[in-house]
Structure formats: C-alpha cells, structure tokens
Write a structure and sequence with these properties.
By secondary structure, this protein is of the alpha/beta class. The protein has 2 domains: about 400 residues, 3-Layer(aba) Sandwich (Alkaline Phosphatase, subunit A), CATH 3.40.720; about 55 residues, no CATH class. The protein contains 16 helices and 15 strands. It is globular.
C-alpha cells in the first residue's frame, strides 16, 4: 500500500487542474484503491513506531508543502511518505492531570498503554511527580520491553538525548523526566533508592540498538567529551563516578561472548543471529564509527553522537553526525536479523546545543527548523519502507502532542510556506503566513509590531511572530493523527485515547497481555519459519533447553 496509495496525488500541470476530468479521474482511482483495501489480519513480526515530537496536523500539512517546494513544486499537492499509509486514527493526548500534555505523560500512554501524570515516565497515574517513593509498585512496562521479553530485538533511534522523555518512556520508570543522571536528582530521591534515567537505560531492558545523543549523562563528572575535549561544559556529569558506557559494553560483551562461543561450539552459530555477539557489542560516537559497524558483526550497538541533544538537520555537520535516516537504516539492518522479529522506536525531536527540535523548533518559534525535522522524519519513514515489507511489518507514525502553530492569510497557490501573506494586517504591516499563538516571537518595537519582510523570513533561524509573549512556545491540546500500514493496521481507526496505540501494537505482535490471543501460536511458528528450515531451529531449541538445564 505504501507504494500505490499516493499515486493519484502526483504533481500535475496547472492547466490540467482546471478541467473537471482531472479531479474526477483522480477521485475514481482513489475510490478503486479504497474498495480494494482489505484488512491485513495476520500478526506482525516486526513493529516500527515513528514519533514526531510535536508533529501536529498543522505541522504535517506545512511539512508536506515544504517537501514539495524543496523538490521544485508548488508544494500543496505533494505527498508525504507517511500519508501513503491506508489506515488512520486520531488520538486524544490529554494526561490524567493536564488538558494540554507534555512528552513524558504522552510517551507513557502510547508506549506503556496507560494514561499517566505529566512529567512522569513509565508509571501509572498513582505516581506523583518528583516523589521518588511513589515510583515503587506503580511501574508499567512498555511495548518495547515486552517485545524484548518475547525474544524480539529492540531498538531506539532519536535525534534528542536518549534519556529524553519520549525514548525514556520505553525503558525507564521515573517520577521525574528530568532525572537524566544522578547529578540531576535530589538527595532525597537517591536516598530513597530511585535510579536516574541513564542508569535505567543500561540496566532495565536489554536494548539491542541505542542511537541518539546524551553522552554527558553516561560518564563521570569532568570526563572530557571525545568530540569537544576543550569545552568543559560538555564534560560528563555523573557524581557517582560510574562510566555507564563502559558498564554497558562490558555486560553485553561478556554475555554475548559466552553465548556466541557456546553456540558456535555446538555447530549452529552460523544459523543464529545471536552468534554475532561473540565478536562484541559496539559503542560509537560519530558518523565515521557508525558507518564502520558491519550489520552482521554485532547484536548490540550504542551510538551517542552529542553530549546532550543532536543538532537540527539544517545545522548538522554531515561528516560527523548521522542523520535520522542513516540511524534508522542502521538500526533496521541490525534488528531485522533476529528470527523472532523486532520492535523499533524512532523519534525526531532534535535540538542544537542551544535548544530546538520538531518540538523545540516550535518551542523556540523557529518554524523552518521544525518543518525540516518533520521532512527528515518522513524520509526515515520512506527508507524504512524500502528496508521492510508491509507483509510482516506494522509501521505506525504519530505524534505525542501538537503546538500552537498555524499558517494562513489567504496565501496564493505556490506561496513559500515561510513567505508573507498577500495583504497587510490592520496595522498596515506585513506578516508571515506562519504564526504562533504564543512564544518568543512576540515583539513590540516603538509601540508597534515590527513588519515581517523577505528574505529575512526565509532564514532557518527566523522566529515567526507570536500573539502572546512567552519565553518558549507551548504545546497545544488538540488530537494528533495516527497513520498505519501492515499487519493489523486496520486496528487504527476512529478517534481513540492515546494509550490505545500501545495496546493495538501489542495485539498486532502477540505481546503481553495479548500473547495467547487466537492466531498467536501460528504467528510465532511462521516468523521462525521465514528465517531458515525447521531442523536447525529445533536443534537450537534443544541445545538452549539443555544449556538452561545445565546452568540451572
């Protein structure tokens, strides 16, 4: 479906659009596709969840236009790769305690399957923000964690720090989204036994691929950063003196080496993905290191490419920092070798060291930075579609929340998405089509609003004007779209609570609490059967059972 659904919306000559036949023909083709659409009722072997932080409907629409204009078109008739998915729902984003949510509460919803309180991660609504003691007994497990327990490979790709709220909801249980390292935690929380998010990244879930930013939270205080050794502000921050990168490497290499060498000794290593473990887990911190990792040489890869968050795509050093497309491809190539399948979470939420992302691009009032991030996420969606098959891979694209971002002003067809409205405002001053409801773009000079102008408004760091002065622009509370293709994609329909996303994914892949639903046993047999003949797998199973007996 990803290859055909968008065909009727290809670019067209302006003259053709003036004839009723053009629109009638296009509508007929879409009707034919709709009538041929059948639910893919088989279970999903693989799941990829793409999450555009702050990518509301207005951001998606503007990103579509920007994509088309980058390609030389007028933009409006362009089609995002994610928009070719045949199934769609809307998700309500409120949290238990907030009408307008944050990324931690929403992450807990779409990854763990329960609505929660804002600023808390991987905890039910019984937990209280900032109160360590409310953590214990209120933990909820993510779909990623359940997929790993089911024998699937799992991975996280993000353009922010890997300890950030959205990816952290996949593995952490924290009463505060801000407890990145022990240095960020109050003494009371440490005394009561709570662990920082970086510690939980390494020890909570056996995550096969971890790609993003966040080096400083992993290393001891004053440890020089490998990329910025002369900048003390980029040094490690941990007060406990631990090097979590070294801990992760040591644990994975020892475990993998023992398992891989044992399997190799039994003569079945070449048939099983875990046998690559004996060559060791890998840690990299730049694009060169990532590119040097051979897909079949590791089963565990950690890549941390900035001390905190990765840079905007428009500011990215292409020789030292990988793009979200490159990270997504590397993750899929490693994860897909697991015969049981995989779960991959991909988030675009990028900042330069001063601040930003799809989300923070909006927070800082810089629309061009935000929209470029949305375009890059869509390119990652397209590349993932080339590397997987909708026959066995459920791909879901959504957002955690939206922003007070809009574009209007009766602009003509083909107007630059960052351009000016054709008429001046009541104050007789020009304004951009894109505006924010609040944020740092508010400005009064000499008692009046400054006039917008070109080419300044086209600059990547231009701040669009805002109606209300705030230090940072805020999230908004409207529903977000959920797009899906692949097995069980038809489960995404109508208007749903946001936590439904986690349940639909778990059901589609036969993960807890739906592991014993009808069709799951046959799905597990089928996923193993697609990798190699039954005899080696039966032999491997017998050997594994024998090993467990001996070790027990």
């Amino acid at each position: 479906w990803g290859c055909t659904w968008g065909l009727p919306a290809l670019l067209s000559p302006p003259d053709a659009e003036k004839t009723p036949g053009y629109w009638n023909k296009g509508a007929r083709r879409r009707l034919e596709l709709a009538m041929a659409l059948q639910p893919a009722a088989q279970r999903a072997k693989n799941i990829i969840l793409f999450m555009g932080d702050g990518m509301g409907l207005s951001t998606m629409s503007a990103a579509r236009i920007y994509k088309g204009q980058l390609a030389g078109g007028s933009g409006e008739e362009s089609v995002l790769a994610m928009e070719t998915f045949p199934h769609m729902a809307l998700a309500k984003t409120y949290t238990i305690d907030r009408q307008v949510p944050d990324s931690a509460g929403t992450g807990t919803a779409y990854l763990c399957g329960v609505k929660a309180n804002a600023k808390t991660l991987g905890l039910s609504g019984a937990a209280v923000y900032g109160k360590c003691h409310s953590t214990f007994g209120n933990e909820v497990d993510s779909v990623l964690h359940r997929a790993r327990l089911a024998g699937k490979a799992v991975g996280i790709v993000t353009t922010t720090r890997v300890q950030h709220a959205s990816p952290a909801a996949a593995y952490a249980h924290s009463a505060s989204r801000g407890w990145y390292a022990d240095a960020n935690m109050p003494r009371e929380a440490l005394r009561d036994g709570c662990k920082d998010i970086a510690d939980q990244l390494v020890h909570n879930t056996d995550i096969n691929v971890i790609l993003g930013g966040g080096r400083m939270y992993m290393t001891p205080k004053r440890t020089p950063d490998p990329e910025y050794p002369e900048d003390p502000e980029q040094n490690g921050t941990r007060k406990d003196g631990r090097d979590l990168i070294a801990e992760w490497l040591s644990a994975k290499q020892v475990a993998c080496r023992e398992e891989g060498m044992w399997l190799q000794a039994q003569g079945v290593c070449h048939r099983h993905w875990l046998c690559s473990c004996w060559q060791g887990a890998r840690y990299v911190w730049d694009k060169k290191g990532l590119d040097a990792v051979e897909d079949d040489s590791v089963s565990h890869l950690m890549g941390l490419f900035e001390p905190k968050d990765m840079r905007y795509e428009l500011n990215r050093n292409t020789s030292t920092d990988p793009s979200i497309v490159e990270m997504t491809e590397k993750a899929i190539r490693i994860l897909r070798r697991n015969p049981n399948g995989f779960f991959l979470f991909v988030e675009d939420d990028r900042v330069p060291r001063a601040g930003g992302r799809i989300d923070h691009g909006h927070h800082s009032g810089r629309a061009k930075q935000a929209l470029m991030e949305a375009v890059m996420l869509d390119r990652a969606v397209a590349r993932a579609g080339e590397l997987t098959s909708p026959a066995d891979t459920l791909t879901v694209v959504t957002a955690d929340h939206s922003h007070v971002f809009t574009f209007g002003g009766s602009t003509p067809r083909g107007n630059s998405i960052f351009g000016l409205a054709p008429k001046k405002a009541k104050d007789k001053r020009a304004y951009t089509s894109i505006l924010y409801g609040n944020g740092p773009g508010y400005s009064i000079r000499d008692g009046a609003r400054p006039a917008a102008s070109l080419p300044a408004a086209e600059d990547k760091d231009y701040r669009q004007q805002a109606a209300v002065p705030l230090e940072t622009e805020t999230h908004s509370g409207e529903d977000v779209v959920v797009l899906a293709q692949g097995p069980m994609a038809h489960l995404f329909h109508g208007v749903q609570e946001q936590h439904y996303i986690a349940h639909a994914m778990a059901y589609a892949a036969c993960l807890e609490p739906y592991a014993t639903e009808p069709g799951c046993r046959a799905a597990r047999r089928a996923s193993r059967g697609t990798q190699c003949s039954p005899q080696p797998l039966l032999a491997l199973l017998a050997l594994c059972m024998a090993a467990l007996t001996v070790r027990g």
